Amino acid sequence: MSTFEHEQVLIRTGQRSGLPIIVAVHSSTLGQAVGGCRVRQYADWRDALADALRLSAGMTAKCAAAGLDNGGGKTVVALPGGVTLTPSLRRDVLHDVADAAASLDGRYATGPDVGTTPDDMTVIGERTGHVLGRPLGRGGSGDSSGPTATGALAALRAVSGHLHGTPDLAGRRVAVVGVGSVGERLARMLTDEGADLLLSDIDPAKRALSAELGAAWDDPEQALTADVDLLVPAALGGVLTELIVPRLRCAAIAGPANNQLATPEVADLLHERGIIWVPDYIAGAGGVTYAVTVELQRGTADEGLGRVQAIENTVTDLLTRARTTGTTPAQAARELIERRLRTAATDPGRR
Ligand SMILES: NC(=O)c1ccc[n+]([C@@H]2O[C@H](COP(=O)([O-])OP(=O)(O)OC[C@H]3O[C@@H](n4cnc5c(N)ncnc54)[C@H](O)[C@@H]3O)[C@@H](O)[C@H]2O)c1
């Protein structure tokens, strides 16, 4: 039997919406658990529960590795097939989520995720203060994709420093796969840095961006296996599979897409091929780092940005540790996370 490692899981039928509302608090060892609210269709509510368990554990890792004094949580609302969210049902769902978060007495704060927006967080904020990611001017820090892109750029600079002795990205060949909210911002930043860019997306309309930035364009399959210095997954998860690893021609991979590895073993396969993989929960931590610093810790925008840029130091330390101990960056990250959690559990004053 596998071990139940979550602190608390709340499952209830929403009083207004009648829909399954699931809030998983994986860990509050480092502080208040944070993690977004996902609203999407599931074939079975138990699949939504599995998602909440997995994603909340991922948030614990993300916060711990980013040096935040926060734990991991997640809300998932399981929409049955055929149910569409009318504006009034959406409002009911959001108020049900707010009440579920409020019932945890500050142990957990929610935020935007797949299927929810910063405006939805304003609606949740009508019933609880335990919410992050409201729009600017409405008590929140606004769209997280800018800070997420800044954090991913910091990770790429660290990789460049590790490989070439300088974080300067001018002239480095970089493939960005997925140019949505985060990928587009990152592509613009990389252009400003003077990188030699290849862009890709399943949406052909995004090709206009490559023309605007003077970047090359290819379909996602080709871009993933392009001969580049840095590969940046910025679309969906699961792109790094056992089948694709032998075909990769990049020196390193670092990007914001969540859950890039199809299986954990892919990290070892990449290591065997000499390809550096920066764990996604570190390269993609800019958004949560900024929101927590500005909204929960009441820091200034500059302080938030400074902490996001510090992802460069985190990745540099991680790659150095991995190199000196002969392990993978993923293993080095796991050890860093376990050390932080152990220290906080035994000596809460030394988080
Ligand atoms: N938005 C944030 O602040 C944030 C924070 C942390 C992590 N992330 C992660 O970063 C990734 C991108 O987030 P986003 O907010 O930019 O999403 P988005 O939906 O705005 O953009 C995703 C882009 O990827 C494209 N795409 C989808 N499937 C593709 C495929 N197979 N190949 C190539 N392109 C494909 C889409 O057409 C779209 O342009 C996601 O994995 C997300 O979970 C986002």
From TrEMBL:
Keywords: NAD, Nucleotide-binding, Oxidoreductase. Coiled coil: none annotated. NAD(+) binds at G178, V179, G180, S181, V182, G183. It holds the Pfam family ELFV_dehydrog. One of its GO terms (biological process) is amino acid metabolic process. SUPFAM superfamilies: Aminoacid dehydrogenase-like, N-terminal domain, NAD(P)-binding Rossmann-fold domains. It comes from the Bacteria. Gene3D superfamilies: Leucine Dehydrogenase, chain A, domain 1 (3.40.50.10860), NAD(P)-binding Rossmann-like Domain (3.40.50.720). InterPro entries: Aminoacid_DH-like_N_sf, Glu/Leu/Phe/Val/Trp_DH, Glu/Leu/Phe/Val/Trp_DH_C, Glu/Leu/Phe/Val/Trp_DH_dimer, Glu/Phe/Leu/Val/Trp_DH_bac/arc, NAD(P)-bd_dom_sf. Residues 140-349 form the Glutamate/phenylalanine/leucine/valine/L-tryptophan dehydrogenase C-terminal domain. The active site is at K74 (proton donor/acceptor). One of its GO terms (molecular function) is oxidoreductase activity, acting on the CH-NH2 group of donors, NAD or NADP as acceptor. Belongs to the Glu/Leu/Phe/Val dehydrogenases family. This is Leucine dehydrogenase. It comes from Actinoallomurus iriomotensis.
